[in-house]
Amino acid sequence: MAVRRLDDGSAFAEFVAARSHVLFRTAYVVVGDHHLAQDLLQEALVKAYVAWPRLRDPTKAEAYVRRTMVTTAISWRRRRSFHEPPVDRVPDAGHIDEFDRFAPRDVLWEQVCGLPPRQRAALVLRYYEDLSEAETADLMSCSVGTVKSQVFEALSKLRERVGSDSDVLLPDDETAAT
To answer: Which domain holds residue 115?
Structure first.
């Protein structure tokens, strides 16, 4: 067992202070819920704190935490007890609201949240976090080919669900396949 030194705690605290907002954003897009994202980030940071003395390269701590968040979120979804809380839809009021211009994004986000966890993680890491296929594969502990197929399947499902005539912009197949 590694002995925790005083400077380990301060280095970890500096890391959390500097990167937690970015890591929370990643957690949010991976799970799609503000409260679950907070829980996911906290769990990943606890695991990172425990592993901190063993990290060979502390500059890769952010990648470690992201990977932990992705694998933890996937394992949460596999639990039988995991479920999303029901949400009642607000009926259409019949008037145009100034926020209607955001409706296509809301539709897309709803569909992204409905994707299987690995597909959503691959899509979020590739297009929202703008990571390369190799970086995404590393974070998801899989091959680059798996990332490509997960992204392809996710985009296909989104196009099928949202429709090609929608105002929602999705990456081209050519971009997703590279």
So the answer is: 101-177
